[in-house]
# Entry
Amino acid sequence: MQFQRLALFGVGLIGGSLARALKRASVCGEIVGVGRVHADLRRAVELGFIDRDETDVGRAVEGADLVVVATPIGAMRGVFERISGHLAIGAVVTDVGSAKMSVIDDARAAFGDAFPRFVPGHPIAGTEKSGVEAGFADLYRGQRVILTPTEWTDAAAVERVRQMWEITGAVVETMTAERHDEILAYTSHLPHMVAYALVDVLAGLDGGGQMLHFAAGGFRDLTRIASSSPRMWRDIALANREALLAAIDSYGARFGALRAALDRADGGELEAIFIRAKAARDRLGPAGRESPEA
Amino acid sequence: MQFQRLALFGVGLIGGSLARALKRASVCGEIVGVGRVHADLRRAVELGFIDRDETDVGRAVEGADLVVVATPIGAMRGVFERISGHLAIGAVVTDVGSAKMSVIDDARAAFGDAFPRFVPGHPIAGTEKSGVEAGFADLYRGQRVILTPTEWTDAAAVERVRQMWEITGAVVETMTAERHDEILAYTSHLPHMVAYALVDVLAGLDGGGQMLHFAAGGFRDLTRIASSSPRMWRDIALANREALLAAIDSYGARFGALRAALDRADGGELEAIFIRAKAARDRLGPAGRESPEA
# Structure
């Protein structure tokens, strides 16, 4: 067995898909699930992707050589604090949060001497669905996982976490937490803010309900991600606040330039913006069928 | 035959799909195609959705009881001017433009006494593809077509155009041009501007290419419409400039409120915005498979 015991905090889409993939590969001696909602843990045992559930954090972590924190990002600090006194010697801890600088700060504060064995991670995958039933073993196949080790992070610990993700079929890359947070701000967090604001402005208009009725596929595609969990996105936005504010402001400047061109009826400038954007978008390929999200 | 001769200006996605649907229903004595690009007209004859092509505008329109102008919106004024001296007595003219106030102004100026038989129309359907090969007979099935007759528009002419669209399987509704333009500004034109600006800001960043590489499905879905024709969207934006500026500004205000909540780390307000938006978006249903667009 590559891993003797995996302690998994959070059995939703992200954690549940990871556990399903590791189960299928038979690489864990035991997967112990921990979570707030006992019914979810019982369901995860029924579905067979965890071997047992544990409500006592200390007992869950004891003897685990690998701990994966797959809770919503807002709950991670509390989990880190509760587990830090119970970690086995040499245990490796990793997370799945969409923002890495703030999670690293939380981990540094909670883990003290064990901080070098914390490997910050983020699988760039997901759907707008969530919950214990939502996961599937192939969620990560061909998707990217970004690890953002700090200068103190143990190289062997990074290697263990890389192995874990590669078993799921993911492509693992490393970069700084700062660069990760900037990339995610632009490619995921900003688009979510934009989608939420677009729907919200329609919902708030007189006759906005009638308008939604006429919304065609372009609008539907564009705002699909506004169906994502409000609480989760509140926490992600706050966790990546600085990078997201910077991305919002550079988008605002670009959108302002587009508005100014329209205001002065400058067709040449509008077309130049649209041509640049189309060229960049065409390089991306069609809309994702599997609808992965950050 | 419900229509003796249909003169169709523009054999691309919108006009070509209409002609295919009318052909299939065998309701036209003859469909005469007119367009700028002769090779496209020849191809349309080969594909069988027009009976013959005509480069002489006068001959194309003479004897036609129905004229459909399905060119890009920026070209409509010129077409109206060229056909107005050739229309048969009683001929009904309609268009497919995404903005209606400006098209109505163009038609009023061009048609003079024949203006009451001009029925402004807009099928809310499309894909990001375009061209003579892109159309299909079922494009309009179950989709909405909005007609925006003015106070001068002849009721019998409106009825003829309604019949034409109903043959394609579309659901026809009427409203004022002003309301149409406001609805389209919010549900189609604004989202296109947002998508173009989002891609453009990434494309313009140092390392933006690397960022696009990490863009997940959410970003892909959200920006799919940025692959639409830059020239067509330049013309639509200019044609619906006032309503679009108003929509941009109310979106800007809402987005600014979201930014302000993030700036002051106001999680309660962020979550309230996201909850409102999610509730509105969830009523819309999933992203459109057929990817219709305005």
